[in-house]
Amino acid sequence: MESNVTVTPKLSYSETAVRYRTIVIDGLDIFYREAGKPGNPVILLLHGFPSSSHMYRDLINDLSDRYHLIAPDYPAFGHSAMPSQDEYNYTFDHLSVTIEKFIDALLLKKFSMYIQDYGSPVGFRIAVRRPELIQALLIQNGNAYEEGLGPAMEGGKQFWANRNTETENVMRGALTPAGTKWQYTEGAGDLSKISPDGWSYDQYFLDRPGNDAIQLALLYDYRTNPPLYPVWQEYLRVHQPPALITWGKNDLFFTAAGAEAYLKDLPQAALHLLNGGHFVLEEYHREIADHIHRFLVKQGINS
């Protein structure tokens, strides 16, 4: 009697193990994590602030037996080069160009793109320029709607409107150990599941001499993102990329209303609100991995 069950051969450890690589883009060392078998469907993971590809460490392990995962660090984040502001223009436009060149250097022709926080303005700029690259969107606390701008963004709005010593000092609070820890723990469903490794790792890189000025430059340039929301929304309406939205509903930066707003332009999107905060992967990486796999299989994007 024939079985209707399809068994996917398990990959060997050597095929699923994470590799830590560096590639030179426009003279800059760009660090990235890579796991999974080349030839499997590609997932490009774009990180947020103040993190790096390290935020995807668990998700990469969860999915590496079925997908080819690639997670770069932006310039001045994680293990990538940190050129001075005289050497590199720290704007979201420029970050997106660097990551687009990274995509081309790795010969990535089509992929699902996971975006969180800063990954949203970086990723949507790329998607608008190169819609043919995007196989699916995996959106996690990555905002593209005014409705999603939560109360924790108020200091940023004042900074964008009038950059001075007072408003800059408010933003500097986000660069301190207490500020970094708060981003991880605020809104968490179960604090015992939030590893201190996450915020400690991020803080190590934030504390490098000169990194504070770079981060402030990007926090100030964030003001250029909300005016582009209509452009990104038009991309969604026109191209209708398959979209999975997994969102920490207690996030005070990008609220659940921002997740639900995507359904205006992507009525077929799959939406899951999770009882967590801004870095919801810290608690729910296994659940999100399961959502991703079921979603991509349903879209016909699977190994």
Taken as a percent bin, the fraction of beta residues is 15-25%
The structural class is alpha/beta
Q: Estimate the helix proportion, in percent.
A: 40-55%
End-to-end distance = 26 Å
Overall mean pLDDT stands at: 95
Indicate the CATH topology.
Rossmann fold
CATH architecture: 3-Layer(aba) Sandwich
Report the strand count. Answer: 8
Number of helices: 12
User: How many domains is the backbone divided into?
Assistant: 1
Question: Could you explain the architecture of this structure?
Answer:
This protein is 40% helix and 16% strand. It is an alpha/beta fold. It has a single domain, classed as 3-Layer(aba) Sandwich (Rossmann fold), CATH 3.40.50.1820. Helix 3 (92-105) packs across helix 4, helix 5 (154-161) runs antiparallel to helix 6 (165-172) and helix 7 runs antiparallel to helix 8 (196-206). The longest helix is centred in the last third of the chain and has 18 residues, at 281-298. Mean pLDDT is 95; it is low at 1-8.
Would you spell out the secondary-structure blueprint of this structure?
Layout: H1 13-16, E1 19-25, E2 28-35, E3 42-46, H2 57-63, E4 68-72, H3 92-105, E5 111-115, H4 119-129, E6 134-139, H5 154-161, H6 165-172, H7 177-185, H8 196-206, H9 211-221, H10 229-239, E7 243-248, H11 256-265, E8 270-274, H12 281-298
